Amino acid sequence: MARIHGSKGSVEMDPAGGALTVAVASLNSWTLEMNRDRVDVTAFGDTFKQWVQGLPNIAGSITGWYENTELDIFDVAQGDTAVTLKLIPSTLAPTHFWTGPAYLDASVNVTATGAVSISSTYVGAGDWTREPVVLLDTLRERGAEPTPAPK
What we know:
Blueprint (H helix, E strand, L loop, with lengths): L9 E5 L7 E2 L3 E14 L10 E15 L6 H7 L4 E6 L8 E13 L7 E8 L4 E3 L2 H8 L10
């Protein structure tokens, strides 16, 4: 597994929520947070805390530079339709990505001493997928679980 540089990252979006995603101009950063609710179900007599895990959650942020010809992100934030986001760590490996429906918020930051920037937070609006998943699926089909990487 090769390490990669973030300079080739990309965010693609279909504002209508379809499968035709296109790159969003002038973005320079994105985050993806994948977490799950955990509920403490510890009872009297348990010797360790006990937990149950709930549904997965998707959330994150997108940042970049304001361009007055690329305002889709603000239209989306004011709308009611979930967009399709496609988050690509490197366009040198475009088949590795996360994608799914999301609701976006948007903001613009204007300072007297810098460039005008934009930022957005998003939450998942349905099921997300990660591509490729072939290796993990193949291991599980063979009855094996992946082992953690050595430290």
